[in-house]
């Protein structure tokens, strides 16, 4: 007996003779007319379905479709057409036009009334979904928060609005995970081992699955787990123990936790370390070539008492009724070339991070603490701005120069204030610099007066 068949393709049917089962004859779909075919043909040697056509197909379907069904509706037959469609669908997911669900189906975001945004978790278990646009935040229940962590990028839908107009949401799909590693306290429970996150916004306990490593860790120690499976609404997160930090009361432990908790880049890549080893510890004659020599001028640095690096130095002298002011900063660009390993890592770090007893520098220590720190009585390469300032504090002219300087003293704000107040011991210590310190103070007063006249705060 012949079996009837039917698919989403168009079909016709007939009865060959009385008493026989109805048979469907499948007719291939006609290719849909693509309104943007000329544009695609201009871009590609083998034009593919435009994004607009794909969105129209999904809108007409009224539901998410797998790639095979989309290909059928577009009447694609060649292997290269299917491959091109797969690449285009991936690009549309990446650009936020489509959503790929857990069943491998593609849906149009505009049709599904979904929101893209970021998860903001609360330590008590609930959280909020912060949409990218102007839509109000969505409240996420503790159950919804089981599948996400603070900072995750996700797609959410509105499930209800309460009497006060507040929106409640549901997580549809996680787009990007914010946390790959989690630091916390290691706990044992019979044959099971868990990591309790130090940051309660990262959800519940994480099951530690590597039994061999677990034998070496004592209950209550601080450890780092790399996540292998993220939690969902039914199962906890799982991970491998990758680093043991030690006892939670060990000196400096709070800094070690903070480094990992905030994902601060405290280790240097091998390429950057190798480049840093190549720097000479002192400024050489070759380094100073074609630079203006300012070493005869008594520039000084003025920083806080606990400053670890000295970025700028100043010098001033009278020039008629006004002043000549020099401000010098370390010439980092001489050592850090664009695109180099150190430059790439410095971009990633963005800034130096200061802890009470430790610094995570943006540049390797040979630069941040030595060659690019304007320490006293050593030659340093610098960028110098020389300014002519009038009697009332207005800048008359300025120029920039690459130079070589030598700081004559490392001073602090407290010391300079005491010198100006007449502290005998400090005035004796900085006796040779007193005329220059006094000139800097007079210039400061003129600049402050000009600032007030401009109405600056």
Structural summary, described in words:
By secondary structure, the protein is an alpha+beta fold. The protein folds into 5 domains: 1-26, no CATH class; 37-108, Orthogonal Bundle (Arc Repressor Mutant, subunit A), CATH 1.10.10; 113-176, Beta Barrel (OB fold (Dihydrolipoamide Acetyltransferase, E2P)); 181-261, OB fold (Dihydrolipoamide Acetyltransferase, E2P), CATH 2.40.50; 277-454, no CATH class. 27% of the residues lie in helices and 31% in strands. The strands form 7 sheets. A 5-stranded mixed beta barrel has the order 6-7-8-10-9. Strands 11-12-13-15-14 form a 5-stranded mixed beta barrel. The protein has a 5-stranded mixed sheet with strand order 16-23-22-19-18. Strand 9 and strand 10 (167-176) form a beta hairpin. The longest helix has 21 residues, at 434-454. It is extended. Residues 1-18 and 22-27 have low confidence and may be disordered.
């Amino acid at each position: 007996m012949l079996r009837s068949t039917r698919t989403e393709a168009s079909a016709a049917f007939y009865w060959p003779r009385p008493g026989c089962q109805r048979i469907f004859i499948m007719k291939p779909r006609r290719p849909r007319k693509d309104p943007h075919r000329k544009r695609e043909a201009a871009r590609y040697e083998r034009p593919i379905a435009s994004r607009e056509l794909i969105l129209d197909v999904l809108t007409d379907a009224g539901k998410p479709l797998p790639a095979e069904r989309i290909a059928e509706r577009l009447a694609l037959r060649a292997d290269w057409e299917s491959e091109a469609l797969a690449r285009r669908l991936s690009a549309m997911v990446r650009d936020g036009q489509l959503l790929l669900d857990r069943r491998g189906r593609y849906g149009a975001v505009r049709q599904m009334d979904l929101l893209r945004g970021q998860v903001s978790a609360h330590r008590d278990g609930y959280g909020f979904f912060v949409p990218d646009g102007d839509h109000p935040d969505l409240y996420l229940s503790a159950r919804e928060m089981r599948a996400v962590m603070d900072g995750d990028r996700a797609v959410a839908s509105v499930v209800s609005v309460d009497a006060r107009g507040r929106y409640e949401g549901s997580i549809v799909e996680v787009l990007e995970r914010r946390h790959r590693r989690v630091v916390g306290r290691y706990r044992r429970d019979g044959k099971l081992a868990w990591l309790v996150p130090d940051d309660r916004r990262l959800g519940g306990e994480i099951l530690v699955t590597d039994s061999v490593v677990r034998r070496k860790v004592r209950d209550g120690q601080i450890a780092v787990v790399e996540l292998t499976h993220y939690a969902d609404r039914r199962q906890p997160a799982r991970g491998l123990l990758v680093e043991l930090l030690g006892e939670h009361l060990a000196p400096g432990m709070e800094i070690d936790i903070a480094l990992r908790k905030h994902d601060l880049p405290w280790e240097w890549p091998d390429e950057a370390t190798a480049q840093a080893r190549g720097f000479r510890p002192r400024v050489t004659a070759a380094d100073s070539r074609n630079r203006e020599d300012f070493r005869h001028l008594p520039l000084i640095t003025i920083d806080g008492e606990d400053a670890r690096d000295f970025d700028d130095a100043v010098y001033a002298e009278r020039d008629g009724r006004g002043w000549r002011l020099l401000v010098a900063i370390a010439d980092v660009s001489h050592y850090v070339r664009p695109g180099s390993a150190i430059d790439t890592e410095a971009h990633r770090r963005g800034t130096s991070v200061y802890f009470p007893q430790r610094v995570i520098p943006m540049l390797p220590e040979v630069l941040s603490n030595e060659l690019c720190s304007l320490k006293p009585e050593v030659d340093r390469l610098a960028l110098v701005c020389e300014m002519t300032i009038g009697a009332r504090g207005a800048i008359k002219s300025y120029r920039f120069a690459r130079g070589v300087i030598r700081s004559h003293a490392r001073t602090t704000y407290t010391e300079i204030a005491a010198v100006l107040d007449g502290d005998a011991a400090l005035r004796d210590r900085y006796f040779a610099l007193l005329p220059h310190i006094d000139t800097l103070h007079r210039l400061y007063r003129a600049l402050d007066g000009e600032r007030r006249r401009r109405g600056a705060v």
